Amino acid sequence: MIKSFNDVLNLAKERGPKTISVAVAQDKEVLIAVKNANDMGIADAILVGDKEKIENVAKEIGMDISKFRIEDIKDPAEASRKAVELVSSGIAHLVMKGLVDTSVILKAVLDKEIGLRTDKVLSHVAVFDTEHYDKLLLVTDAAMNIAPDLNQKKQIIENAAFVAHSVDIDNPKVAVVCAKEKVNPKMPATVDAKELEEMNQRGEIKGCMVGGPFALDNAVSKEAAEHKGIDHPVAGDADIILAPNIESGNVLYKALNFLAKSKSAGIIVGAAAPVVLTSRADSDEAKLNSIALGVLMASKK
Questions:
Q1: Which end of the chain is more exposed for a tag (fewer CB within 10 A), N or C?
Q2: pTM for the complete prediction?
Q3: Which phi and psi (to 5°) does residue 235 adopt?
């Protein structure tokens, strides 16, 4: 069973390499991650951006730039379009955000002519490896959907389940997290949570087990669930945490990163190919983990 990012990296070695197209690649941490992924046999890369700046960063980190194709495009928006086009044309398998704003790369991803648009909701899935939990924990959506409605939450769950399947979690347990574990008509998130659970039971959400509403404690702690008398297969054993809105998802994401010092990865799901999207504040290790996750997703399609 995949329980850590070491497991994820080893699995990506087995199923790779895949080719990454990096948009605006002149970023030190991104290039370190690309170099390490290449050294490990996880991924090849096409570097799109300012060639001179890419070469200068590569020299600084001891990266043999001759191993990589470079597309010399200085404008960030045009570089992002080219990086996405390399994926939509089948030359590369996944796209990665480099030194460019998220809005710019996502505009290219959603471009009707060269992009990776589908009829699915785009959502962000974060994966955490923390010493405080006995397996990987997925959190969604911390970055894309501000206040998802019931149908959007359904699709966000399906996106996260696909990520879980990519790391060989065949029937992930999804905890729909709210402020409390009982349905309260005055708290719409709890109403949605119960409906999502029932949709799963009716077969309208497949490939996972959905439970809710849960408070966070009884989603990840068997002791807390037992103390509150919650008897549900998901209780205390969640693989996926579905947040009710972007604020709660983002707070949980950053708490796990900066307070719990968890290892992490981040990916955008719902496009025609994986989009590796991490924060500029994320380490090269987080970026490497995200590349490995994207490679596994590309292998699953």
A1: N
A2: 0.95
A3: -55, 125
- 123-259 matches 5-118+271-300 in CATH topology: no
The pLDDT tens digits of the residues spanning 199-212 come to 999 999 999 999 99
Q: Tell me what pLDDT residue 84 has.
A: 98
**Yes or no: domain 123-259 corresponds to CATH 3.40.718.10:** yes
Separation between Cα atoms, residue 20 and residue 45, nearest integer Å: 5
* CB atoms inside a 10 Å sphere around CB 245: 13
Q: Parallel, antiparallel, or unpaired: how do β-strands 137-140 and 123-129 relate? A: antiparallel
Give me 224's structure tokens: 């807390």
pLDDT of residue 281: 76
Q: Domain-by-domain residue ranges, the chain?
A: 5-118+271-300, 123-259
CB-based contacts of 155, cutoff 8 Å, min separation 6: 120, 121, 123, 270
What lies within 8 Å, CB to CB, of 191 at 6+ separation is: 183, 184, 185
Taking alpha carbons only, the member of 139, 95, 146, 97 closest to residue 117 is: 95
Question: What fold is seen in the domain 5-118+271-300?
Answer: Rossmann fold (3.40.50)
